[in-house]
Amino acid sequence: MAFQTIRGTFDVLPDAHDTGGSEIPGAAAWRWAEGVVRGTMARFAFQEVRTPVLEPLDLVARGVGATTDIVSKEMFVVERSKEAYVLRPEVTAPVMRAYLQHHLDQRGGAQRLFYIGPCFRAERPQKGRFRQFHQWGTELIGSDDPGADAETVANLRAVYDAFGITGTRLRLNSIGDAADRPAFRDALREHFAPHADQLSETSRQRLDTNPLRILDTKDPAERALLDGAPVLTDFLGDAARDHHDRVKTLLDGLGVPYVEDPLLVRGLDYYTRTVFELESDALGAQGALAAGGRYDGLAQAVGSKRPVPAVGYAAGFERLFIALAEAGTTLPAAPTPDVFLVCLGDAAEAAGFGIAQALRQSGLAVDFALGGRSVKAQMKAADRSGAAHAVVIGDDELAAGAAQVRDLGASEQRPVPIAELAVVLSAGPAARESGPSPVHG
RNA sequence: GUGGCUGUAGCUCAGUUGGUUAGAGCGUCCGGUUGUGGUCCGGAAGGUCGCGGGUUCAACCCCCGUCAGCCACCCCA
User: Fold this and answer.
1) Nucleic strand B within 7 A of Cβ A132
2) ipTM
3) In this structure, are A288 and A355 located in the same domain?
4) Closest residue by C-alpha to C1' distance, nucleotide B71
5) Which of A52, A88, A133, A409 has its Cα between 20 and 30 A from that of A73?
């Protein structure tokens, strides 16, 4: 085997396969999952946008934040003609870029947008963590109303409900407005400074660059220092506090469950006020299924003259599939043809192409073996294809003008005039459109 | 980026204290007389034992490096 997928990437094949630990669902499962997402988005009146995989490096650096891990060490940078591009590590900054570039505010009102697509981060691969991974997410741009936050969270929950995934926990917090942050940062620094020697090297750096990040440390020793540390909630300005309260009231009214977590912060710089994360205990270290929040500061960070309030979330397909597997959900298998054509001899094979074409034009999915294999081999292939019927054509059938139609399930066959094949075969179980549904168990 | 574990046919795995033609099951292909599958029987193809060095008369087995996967950390979806 000469070439292989590069580290942390994978192929999607007709059937599921695994990379050694992570099960990669087949293409039909991906299509189905994307369809479930699209269905939910439609019900929330979110509309799709598709942005390039390649974006200007500066957009990401300024949008996501230069001190973040993503920008400082996980970007795939592409250089060409002195321009620096990156394979997008997330899609929020690109969508905001598109919103500003195309003046989507001129469509009127807040824009309810969603996306589905690949992202790239040069992290060390693990189960549920790839270098090319796939996300869907929403961006509700142009509204500072708490209702926008509530809609976003409600949408997130609705998607996972549609997938039948239970046992998740939605953590919610407010990190306040940019103006609230300095006082809190100072308070944090004051709190940690005396214990700097007990902090890890990275935390000590963060004390300088981004003290909020120390809050979500998992280091037990550092967690101990969190006792008595200043609480973000106490530093919220009136506007942010009121906003947060109204978001919670709306979610309570909707019956959307969440838990408040004053230690929840986000790794990306653009967040303001509302932040949340959906996690599952079933996923091990990759517990985060989805995360998001409000990012009122992003637009200006990427060059807008006016502030543009917005809120959204991003969710990972790879982790969704792990959660679906944990839930015992059966994913759709590759589609099967309706008919498998078995041709004996050159004349029959020549006629077979015409018959296949006619059946296909009538809407049937038709497969057949190329290259004149033995009847036995062709029948075996027909069986394996999953087709409901095999249509056998040989010299006898051509002479009689009638093919043998074999019901592969019942093992019965009868002659059918070639001209009537399309009608007869279409009369069967032709509910192929919607495809199989997953079974929850 | 750090640490640990793993790496033999398409898949799941065997492979004796290093010993000379590396095996099995499943799968694939062909066949079991002239045109019929899912069972059965027979046969075949398929492996530079992840890759590269080293030790040795001799290495899939030992040593070093490297790549990849997995797990944890970090971080994140």
Assistant:
1) no
2) 0.89
3) no
4) A126
5) A52
